[in-house]
Amino acid sequence: MADSEFPSYPKLPRNTINRYKPRGKYDFDTIHSIVNTCPVLHVSFPTPDPSDPFPAMIPMLGFMASFSNPQVSITEPLDLYLHGYISSRLMRLSGTSPSEEEEGLPLTIAATHLDGLVLALTPNHHSYNYRSVILHGFATPVVDADEKIWAMEKITNGVVDDRWTNTRIPPTKTEMSSTQIIKVRVVDASAKVRAGWPSDDRADMKNDELRAKTWVGVVPTWIACGAPVPSPDNKLSKVPAYLADFVSVKNKVGEQNAQLAITGSK
Length: 266
Description:
By secondary structure, this protein is α+β, with helices and mostly antiparallel strands. Helices cover 26% and strands 28% of the residues. It has one domain (3-262): Electron Transport, Fmn-binding Protein, Chain A (Pnp Oxidase, Chain A, Roll), CATH 2.30.110.10. The longest helix is centred in the C-terminal third of the chain and has 22 residues, at 241-262.
């Protein structure tokens, strides 16, 4: 089924993939799944200082979901929630009241998974197997208490499954007041996915001497979780089942994604 048959973000000049167009994806399913499994999102935003020409960028935790319809799947429109400290520069800027013409603080957000090192006959054809996303949207602070704590739970469980209910909750008033959640209304997005084997020039493929001395192929790559190491302050005698299961599943899925990327099955 073609991407256009899935619910998708609009293709605009800003988000349209121009190089290696077949790698471009615009459907909600692909984009939301990449973002929600990425451990770190890189968020870029404008600064109000006219003497500084550079946009700021910071790594953040985030998760895509819908507070108004929590049961909706990732194939439907979702908002991006970002977690930060109340006095950080981004949180302060997003908290300024937009005018009637403004929709919030404009952000660009990047998410990337590395699935493999693609090693070819020549350096020019080396590559990565990867899944990446760029989002554009407008950020506003979450002021509703129920939505804020709901988003905090989503983001926490996005780091480790079921972690929220296995900690001291709810957060204290101090914790709630020092934490800011911003909601990004996404206006456009695109994904770019590379999967498969190396692709070499025809002339190099006919060079038996070169091929006899040069290893080509893919080194599968994924984030691996090691065995949980207890803190000196830990009082539990063994690793809880939810955490052991998370580590096991995380490693299994990561390896599967890397292996599937080699055969181009993504």
